[in-house]
Every structure is written in structure tokens, then in C-alpha cells.
Amino acid sequence: MGSKLIVHSLLRAILIVAFHVLALPSLFAQLSTPDHLAEPGFWPTRNVTSREEYVGSQVCASCHAGKVAAQKNTSMAKTAAHAGDADILRATAKLNFNVGQFAYEIRSEGSKSVYTVSDGTHSLSFPLVWAFGTGRVGQSYLFKKDDGKFYEARVTYFDTLKNLHFTPGRELDAPKDLQEAMERKVPAEEIERCFACHTTAATMGTHFDEQKLMLGVTCEACHGPGAKHVAAAQMANVAGTPDAARGTIFNAAQLDPPDTVDFCGACHATFWDVKITEAKGVATAKSQPYRLEQSKCWGNGDARLTCPACHDPHQQLVTEAAAYDRFCVNCHAAGMKKTDDHAGAVCQVATKECSSCHMPKVNVPEMHYAFTDHRIRVVRAGGAYPE
Ligand code: HEC
Ligand code: HEC
Ligand code: HEC
Ligand code: HEC
Ligand code: HEC
Ligand code: HEC
Ligand code: HEC
After folding, report:
1. How far apart are CA 143 and CA 382, in angstroms?
2. What is the CA radius of gyration of the chain?
3. Rounded distance, CA 181 to CA 79, Å?
4. Residue bearing the CA closest to ligand 5, atom 17
5. Contact 305, 257 (CB under 8 A)
6. Neighbour tally for 215: CB within 10 Å
């Protein structure tokens, strides 16, 4: 039985791979995140070996002040908080959601937030411990019980609702009891993954440390441990040869285009991370690497179209459509010939705000949010969402 299953899934994997290698040759270069993590060297979300190799963003600030000051204000830097410091909870005394017989509530006072679920007769309450997500799209909450284990609240805050609704993927039609209505117990390995994407240096070897981690996606989440670089840079400064500091810390600028997209995909999900889950439909719109790499624009990969080509990861997200035009006209400009490196056609319809038509916002119902579809394309009225 077991071996039959293995053969079956192996066959399926081979078929999926064969199909995509034939149909989408450009995706051959991409890997899943577990495959990248199996390679030597730094990669985002890798467990740290020793906390001592990490110095914290304040130390980077002594030489890269501008980057540190700007990065602090990004959603990535602010994506995890102790519940007591979460702006949304501090600003809202009461959040609630009612479904069937169940009433969900989060009440906040001072620096304390208490999560309560009631079925009309009985109720359960626990103080919240962690808030994940800035609330730009939404914010989910973790709490602990006497067993010391982590539980995820069944409800999440959504910005478009300015209130609570089911945590994405956790909706239950008929919870068997109050406890099931309230929570999902999160296995320890999964908790480590949440913190690996939302905080910096949370797990040392096999030891998850809630006290020593750094909140949010900070410098060393993307550049790896910095102690060696800081020592080298200090020596280089003294010697008056600042360039000697180069090559002593990980810099994604050295990666080829497919790896650069996979790099951001360590957290935003790579093409193969999504493919393996067999996710379908509009829910895939929130995986920008998966969608982008299926655009005709991407071709076999192009440095002018990687994630950091359009988004400076040290700056806040730019929301004006016109600001992205210059990236499109790198390849779609009058006068470019088909023979130019990876040139595209010129639009007959408009000359500005390209992304507003060709990167449509796609509503993902369970997220109560319209994500930007990174599969760049011509959108026809009434056309289906291309898989
Ligand atoms: C003592 C000063 C100093 C400190 C502290 C420092 N850096 Fe640097 N860093 C430099 C210098 C000098 C360079 C090379 C020249 C340049 O880019 O300005 C550099 C280059 C870099 C590069 C490019 C490396 C390359 O090979 O392309 C990255 C990435 C970087 N630093 C990140 C960091 C991070 C993250 C921290 C904090 C963990 C940090 N630096 C702390 C001085 C410093
Ligand atoms: C260590 C994990 C991690 C890595 C690596 C990562 N991200 Fe993120 N990113 C996140 C998380 C978590 C959020 C959600 C922030 C929130 O709570 O709103 C996010 C949000 C964003 C946003 C939305 C920001 C906003 O202000 O609305 C952009 C844009 C983004 N990431 C771009 C990138 C790019 C580009 C790269 C690669 C250079 C990258 N990310 C790599 C974890 C990561
Ligand atoms: C593989 C990395 C990864 C893991 C694991 C992960 N997240 Fe995230 N999370 C992200 C990224 C990236 C975003 C930003 C998505 C976007 O907006 O494009 C995000 C966004 C969020 C948001 C805001 C909603 C949104 O789409 O912006 C919440 C809430 C959240 N995560 C909670 C959690 C919780 C709770 C866990 C663990 C149970 C978890 N995440 C595990 C990477 C991860
Ligand atoms: C979300 C991932 C991410 C985070 C967080 C991040 N960086 Fe970077 N950083 C990158 C990428 C990607 C590049 C390469 C940029 C490119 O390809 O244009 C880079 C490049 C750099 C460089 C080299 C710039 C150059 O011109 O050679 C320095 C210095 C740097 N980062 C410092 C920092 C510091 C300091 C922090 C913390 C405040 C930080 N980074 C946080 C992803 C990140
Ligand atoms: C051609 C330019 C371009 C490239 C390349 C690009 N993006 Fe975007 N991205 C945009 C635009 C435009 C928006 C929408 C900004 C807005 O309206 O708020 C956006 C929005 C986002 C958001 C905010 C959430 C959302 O869906 O609106 C995230 C996160 C993000 N991009 C991540 C990425 C990642 C990761 C990559 C690499 C796979 C990437 N982007 C590549 C142009 C680009
Ligand atoms: C690296 C170069 C490059 C960049 C950057 C680029 N494109 Fe393209 N784009 C192409 C190529 C090449 C094609 C395919 C042309 C063909 O097949 O004839 C294409 C195709 C297209 C198509 C037709 C797609 C279809 O489904 O028929 C649209 C629409 C488009 N691009 C819009 C954009 C927009 C909008 C941007 C900026 C957000 C952009 N492109 C950025 C190179 C690029
Ligand atoms: C108002 C919406 C809108 C805006 C803004 C817009 N386009 Fe288009 N674009 C379209 C439509 C609709 C088509 C399909 C035309 C047709 O085939 O009937 C199209 C077609 C294209 C094509 C395919 C052309 C071909 O011959 O295959 C490309 C490439 C393209 N646009 C690029 C761009 C770029 C680059 C920008 C910004 C400079 C832009 N578009 C701005 C709506 C828009």
C-alpha cells in the first residue's frame, strides 16, 4: 500500500515535471524553496546556526543609515509584533464577528488584548500573544494555553472590513465544539516556518527562541548574518579601502534573474512552491513569483523584470501606477525592433499607467483583498483568469 502510494506520487511528480519542462522551458531554471535550502550558503528563511553571527539592524545603521531608516517603515519590517504593541489592537477597543451561534470578540485595553468566543451559553477567553501581518491586507493572532503550545485564532482582522472574519483557509461550517470554533493548534514545525518568514533569526539549529528573535523582516533576513561583514567593514574603513568590505555578506544582486525571483519567493512562494501545492484559481494571485514567471514578458528570465527591478525592498511599496511605466517601456517602446534583446510590441491603446490595465487587481474572496496579478497580459472584458 505504502510503496504503491510512493510510486504513484513519484509518477505524478515526473509527469508534472515533464509537462512543464516541455510546455514552459523557461521554468526549468526555477527551484522550490526546499531545494534552494538544500544547497550550501545563505538563503532566506534558513535556520541560523548561532545567534552570535547576527548583529541587528541598528549596527548596520552606523554605515548604511539611509537604508536602515527607510527599511524600518516597510510592511516587511513591521510584519510581526507582540500583541501588546500591535497598532490595530491598540487603536480598536473591540473587534467582533458573529457566525451561526458563535460570537467572536477581541477586546483591547492598555497593552492587553483578550480573545473570546461564545456560543450563547458558554465562552472561552485567552490573551493574545503575537500579531502577524501589518494589517495592510490583514492581521492574524496567535495565543498560548497552559500546555505552552501555540494556537491560531480562527478569526483574522481584514483592512477592507475594518473588522474580523474567518482566518483564510480556516473556515469551518460546523465546528464540533467551542474549542474547535475558537482555534487551530499550530504544530511546532509550522510555527517555526511562520516566524522564519515574518521575523529574523528565530530558530537556532533546532532551537526556536521566541525571546531572542528580531521582529519583522530586517536586514539580516535577506542578507544573512552580518557579524563577519561588520568586522571586515570596520577594518576596511580603518585601512581606507571601503571596497574591501564587499563580498563579505550575501547580496542578492549577484543572482541570475530566475534565482532573484526565487529569492523573494523564499517567502512569497516560488513557482514550484505553488506548483507542488496544486493551488488553482484566483488564490494564486497572491504568489507574485508564480504569476510573473508565466507572463510572456518574462520569457526565459530577464533582469529588467525581477522583483527588485520593480520594488526596492528597502523602500515602502510604491502605489502610483505611473511610477511603474518606466519598467515596461524598457522593453515596449516605439523604435525597438524584434531583434533587440527581448523586445515587446508597442501598445496601441495607451501610453501610460500600463500596470493599471495589464496587471489587474484580482479579488481573492477569503483574503477580502484584491491582489495585483503579476501575470502581465492583455485583459479582455469577461475573460477568464488564466491558469
Ligand atoms: C562599519 C561600516 C559597515 C557596517 C556596520 C555595515 N556595513 Fe555593509 N558595507 C560597508 C561598506 C564599506 C561596504 C562596501 C562599499 C559600499 O557598498 O558602500 C558595504 C557593503 C554592503 C553590501 C554589499 C556587499 C556586496 O558584496 O555587494 C551589503 C549587502 C551590506 N553592506 C549590508 C550590510 C548589512 C545588512 C549590515 C548590518 C548587518 C551592514 N552592511 C553593516 C560598511 C558597513
Ligand atoms: C523573509 C521573508 C521575506 C522575503 C525574503 C521577502 N519578503 Fe516581501 N514580504 C514578506 C512578508 C511577511 C510581507 C507581508 C508584510 C505585511 O504584513 O503586510 C511582505 C510584503 C512585501 C511587499 C508589500 C509591501 C507593502 O508595503 O505593501 C512587497 C512589495 C514585497 N514584500 C517585496 C519583496 C521583494 C521584492 C523581495 C525580494 C527582494 C521580498 N519581498 C522578499 C516577507 C518576505
Ligand atoms: C513561506 C513564508 C511564510 C510563512 C510560512 C507564513 N507567512 Fe504569512 N506572509 C508571508 C508573505 C510573503 C506575506 C505577504 C503576502 C502578500 O501580501 O503578498 C504574508 C502575509 C501574512 C499576513 C497578512 C495578509 C497578507 O496577505 O498580506 C498574515 C496575517 C500572515 N501572513 C500570517 C501568517 C501566520 C499566522 C503564519 C503561520 C501560521 C504565516 N503567516 C506563515 C509569508 C509567510
Ligand atoms: C526583503 C529583502 C531585503 C531586506 C529586508 C534588505 N535588503 Fe538589502 N538588498 C536586497 C536585495 C535584493 C539587494 C540587491 C538589490 C538589487 O538587485 O537591486 C540588496 C542590496 C543591498 C545593498 C547593496 C546596494 C548596492 O548598491 O550595492 C546594501 C548595502 C543593502 N542591501 C543593505 C541593506 C540593509 C542595511 C538592510 C536593512 C535596513 C537591508 N539591506 C534589508 C534585499 C533586502
Ligand atoms: C513590472 C513591475 C513589477 C514586477 C517585476 C514585480 N512587481 Fe510587484 N507590484 C507591481 C505593481 C504595479 C504593484 C501594485 C502596486 C499598487 O497598486 O499598490 C505590485 C504589488 C506588489 C505587492 C503588494 C501586494 C499586491 O498584490 O498588490 C507585492 C507583495 C509584490 N508586488 C511583490 C512582488 C514580488 C515578490 C515580485 C517578484 C516575483 C514582484 N512583485 C515583481 C509591479 C511589479
Ligand atoms: C524584459 C522585457 C519586458 C518587460 C520589462 C516588459 N515586457 Fe511585456 N512583453 C515582453 C515580451 C518579449 C513580450 C512577448 C512579445 C511577443 O510574444 O510577441 C511581452 C508581451 C507583453 C504583452 C502581451 C501579452 C499577451 O498575453 O499577449 C503585454 C500586454 C505586455 N507585454 C505588457 C507589459 C507591461 C504592462 C509591462 C510593465 C508592467 C511589461 N510588459 C514589461 C517584454 C517585456
Ligand atoms: C486603458 C488600458 C490600457 C493601458 C493603460 C495600457 N494598455 Fe496596453 N493594451 C490594452 C489593450 C485593451 C490591449 C489589446 C489591444 C488589442 O489587441 O485589441 C493592449 C495591448 C498591449 C500590448 C500587446 C500589443 C500587441 O500588438 O501584441 C502591449 C505589449 C501593451 N499593451 C503594452 C502596454 C504598455 C507598455 C503600456 C504603458 C505604456 C500599456 N500597454 C498601457 C490596454 C491598455
Report:
1. 43
2. 23
3. 26
4. 319
5. yes
6. 17
Distance, CA of 193 to CA of 209 (rounded, Å): 13
* Euclidean distance between CA atoms 22 and 41, whole angstroms: 31
* Cβ 128 under 6 angstroms from ligand 3: no
CB atoms within 10 A of CB 154: 25
Q: Is the CB of 202 under 6 A from ligand 2?
A: no
Q: Quick one: which atom of ligand 2 is closest to the CA of 79?
A: 17
Cβ-contact 332, 342 below 8 angstroms: no
User: In terms of Cα–Cα distance, which of 64, 39, 35 is closest to 220?
Assistant: 64
Task: Pick out the chain residues at pLDDT < 70.
Answer: 1-28
Q: Cell numbers 460546523 label which residue?
A: 174
Look at the block and give the residue holding cell 531545494: 35
Distance CA 368, CA 251 (A): 35
Is the Cα dihedral 249, 253, 256, 260 positive or negative?
Answer: positive
Instruction: Look at residue 3 in the predicted model and tell me its pLDDT.
Output: 44
Taking every pair of Cα atoms in the chain, the longest distance, rounded to a whole number of angstroms, is 73
Cβ of 229 closer than 6 Å to ligand 1, yes or no, is yes
**Torsion angle in degrees (nearest 10) through CA of 353, 356, 358, 361:** 160
Task: For residue 23, give Cα distances in angstroms to 16, 19, 286.
Answer: 10, 6, 23
Cβ distance 269 to 287 under 8 Å? yes
> What confidence score (pLDDT) does residue 27 get?
59
Q: Whose Cα sits closest to atom 7 in ligand 6?
A: 297
Query: Which residue do the cell numbers 557579524 mark?
Result: 227
**Closest by alpha carbon to 308, among 247, 222, 372?**
222
- Check if the beta carbon of residue 131 is closer than 8 Å to that of residue 82: yes
Buried-state track 102-111, b at ≥16 Cβ within 10 A, e below 16? bbbbbbbeee
| Mutation choice for ligand 1 from 48, 62, 64, CB with most ligand atoms inside 8 A | 64
Residue to substitute in 89, 152, 197, 276 for testing ligand 3 pocket (most ligand atoms within 8 angstroms of CB): 197
Contact status, residue 288 vs residue 307, Cβ threshold 8 Å = yes
Per-residue pLDDT at 149: 96
pLDDT for the residue numbered 220: 97
Quick one: which ligand is closest to 317's CA?
Answer: 2
Q: Which three cell numbers stand for residue 202?
A: 528565530
For residues 69 and 155, what is the distance between their CA atoms, to the nearest angstrom?
Answer: 33
